[in-house]
Specification:
10 helices; alpha/beta
């Protein structure tokens, strides 16, 4: 344990004001309520929950989700999956194409600790995965990524999915498990009725592809979709077996303002006021290296109304609408993060806060796991 982490652990039980700054905080009561809400919605609609872990990257949080009813986790990278497997989590979907001998070699080793699932959208990738797992005497679960409107990776819905499923089924090192897609085109739609229709139409194409595979004689175990930006509509769609809703446990300004979700924000950055050069200007000790402003700007809490904010590398400048003598130099300010996915990975640890006091400190074990 390094000195900084040891110092943070020493304040367990103390008020959060005892923390050195900048510090990444999660309100445990809010996060637990968000977890419970997602789990309850999934249970009510008979859909499994496999939350994406790319935002929190923390096994302790993943285990909280599993304790609440999640069947496993979704990861973006092999490195994240390795962290989760090392923590004892076995049912892991890597919602990505794993390509090339280096990563596939790691995937073969990962299969000793966990039962991973990976996405494919090409015969070339199917062949290289099959070759590696056949040589190792193992079988890898495969889902086909279907492009249901995101226009990134994925196979066109329908006949192309059935054809790729047939090829997967012929490979002894692979086991075809189902289909996966992401209806991301619905996320920014503000009108609830329009968003619901868009989710319905996109997911219907995914379900129809799964049905066509089943009619062709393939067993379908997984029809996976959904994210925070399409909750709760994704869990309501007939034929879906699981959803990947992940970021909602934290929520953030991006989800609140651009995706129009109503989850309470749980993740904040605690900062210290280091300068008050003018009655309207506040300078804090956290900038782009602490919190991102790419998808949305962080939002300061419990200070007078703000007219503008700018992030520098190590500082942020906050301009108030009117002159104020508060906050003062040395005071601490909480900011709701702009986007959790691109803020958490900047930190070494998350500090769990309950009723204003430090309850836990978790190492972000998946930090930097980009390969």
């Amino acid at each position: 344990m390094d000195t900084r982490t040891a110092t943070t652990h020493s304040v367990i039980g103390q008020p959060k004001s005892a923390l050195d700054t900048p510090a990444l905080l999660v309100d445990l009561d809010v996060m637990e309520a968000n977890i419970a809400r997602i789990a309850a919605a999934c249970r009510a609609h008979g859909v499994a929950w496999r939350p994406h872990s790319k935002a929190h990257k923390t096994p302790e949080i993943a285990k909280m989700q599993i304790a609440a009813g999640a069947i496993g986790v979704t990861c973006a990278k092999v490195g994240e999956a390795e962290v989760m497997a090392a923590a004892g989590i076995r049912d892991i979907l890597i919602a990505n194409q794993i390509v090339g001998p280096i990563k596939i070699g790691r995937l073969v080793e990962l299969a000793d600790l966990a039962d991973p699932i990976v996405c494919v959208d090409s015969l070339q990738n199917v062949n290289e995965l099959d070759a590696a797992f056949s040589r190792a005497g193992k079988r890898l679960r495969i889902v086909i990524e279907v492009d249901i409107g995101m226009n990134r990776a994925g196979v066109t819905p329908g006949a192309a999915v059935v054809e790729l499923a047939r090829e997967i089924a012929r490979r002894p090192g692979l086991r075809f498990a189902g289909v996966e897609g992401w209806e991301s085109q619905a996320t920014t739609i503000a009108d609830p009725a329009e968003k619901q229709r868009t989710v319905r139409d996109a997911v219907a194409a995914l379900v129809a592809s799964a049905r066509a595979c089943k009619e062709a004689g393939h067993k379908i175990e997984i029809v996976s979709c959904g994210g925070t930006g399409t909750f709760p509509y994704c869990v309501q769609q007939p034929g879906v077996t699981e959803v990947q809703v992940g970021g909602a446990i934290f929520s953030d300004m991006h989800y609140l303002t651009h995706y129009h979700v109503d989850f309470a924000p749980a993740l904040t950055v605690l900062t210290t006021v280091t300068s008050r050069p003018t009655p309207t200007r506040i300078v804090i000790d956290a900038g782009k290296k602490t919190m991102s402003g790419d998808a949305a700007m962080p939002a300061p809490r419990d200070i007078p109304p703000v007219s503008a904010m700018k992030l520098s590398a190590e500082h942020s400048k906050i301009e108030l609408e009117q002159a104020s003598d508060v906050p003062k130099i040395g005071d601490k300010i909480d900011l709701v993060v702009g986007y959790s996915d691109t803020t958490v990975h900047l930190h070494e640890e998350i500090v769990g806060i309950r009723s204003g006091r430090v309850e836990s400190v978790w190492r972000i074990a998946g930090r930097g796991k980009l390969k």
